[in-house]
Amino acid sequence: MSWLKTILAALAATLLATAAQAQPAVKEGDYVARDFRFSSGAVLRELKLHYRTLGTPKRDAKGEVTNAVLILHGTGGSGAQFLRPQFADVLFKPGGALDPAEYFIILPDGIGHGGSSKPSDGLRARFPEYDYDDMVAAQHLLLTKHLGVNRLRLLFGTSMGCMHAFVWGETYPDFARALMPMACLPTEIAGRNRLWRKMAMDAIRADPAWNGGDYTTQPLQGLRTAQSLLTLAGGAPMRMQADMPTREAADKFWEETFPRAIANLDANDLWFQINASRTYDPSKDLEKITVPVTWINSADDFINPPELGLAEQFARRLVKGRYLLIPNSREGRGHGTHTWAVFWEDELKALLARS
Q1: At 1, is the pLDDT very low, low, confident or very high (cuts 50, 70, 90)?
Q2: Structure pTM?
Q3: Which one-letter DSSP state was computed for residue 276?
Q4: Cα pseudo-dihedral 326, 327, 328, 331, rounded to 10
Q5: How many whole angstroms separate alpha carbon 127 and alpha carbon 112?
Q6: What is the DSSP string of 118-178?
Q7: Angle at CA of residue 84, ends 115 and 101, nearest 5°
Q8: CA separation for the pair 155, 171 (Å, rounded)
Q9: Confidence band (pLDDT; 50, 70, 90) for 24?
Q10: Which domains are delineated in the chain?
Q11: Exposed, middle or buried: residue 34 (CB in 10 Å: 0-12, 13-18, 19+)?
């Protein structure tokens, strides 16, 4: 029976090799920007930016990287979120739209997020109040000064990263050959979108445990309110109704979800993350964006409700823009549809083809 053992061993080796091939290697690193000046005028002696990469840079005859893809996360997230199956297993697989064998994929943690410099590192409420312009400027430094990337094949961003994509497109018009912003609007955050953010921020600082940001224990009353608002803002009504069809089911969901949701939250970090949107408003200069753009929102997005009609208004001003609205459905993910690639993978392929 030795022949059977040989065959089984060979089969096991093949399966392991296939699994390894399906899970591309992820490299992590840090870049430290010295004397980083924020738009407010504040200066941080050392600003650390954590990042992950997949794939290898390819260079042309001039030594310029030609295959770099920058993927930007949303508020409270990090580059690690794009390694989840609903995104990575669809796009990063062999032959996928963003196969690491073809592309050099860069997943940074924005200022105030993940492994990058943030208030909870020690400065707490004395950390500079960064905004989206600061975050994009830091990403630009990471690419140009550290990774040697001076042109992007694609810039893809979700939620806050979607807004960063519009800032990138106006601040560095020729840097990316194509933009794919997902789940945002290119205008000042106002109305209900600003209101829920203001409520969350005020709740954190109104908590008696806040102590000017120098709390000894997390201000849980404030975090409870903030996380409650975040849960509703990010949810999909039809899916939530299907998943929680009874009062008991809804109550059980929240009782199980809430402790996990706030387990690793820091009040200073969260306040700064939400506050970073305060100066965002690319609406005046959309005509500066002349590269191909595929911009996608979803109909069940609480944060960017389609009934406002703003997206269609702004899309007309994008020279090479294509705007799509993913219809409401029971399978929808609300605001989070942006990281479920099954909904928009074909549009990404089409954008890469036309750019």
Answers
A1: very low
A2: 0.92
A3: G
A4: -70
A5: 9
A6: -GGGTTGGGS----HHHHHHHHHHIIIIII----BSEEEEETHHHHHHHHHHHHSTTTBS-
A7: 90
A8: 13
A9: confident
A10: 25-191+283-354 (3.40.50.1820), 193-274 (1.10.1740.110)
A11: exposed
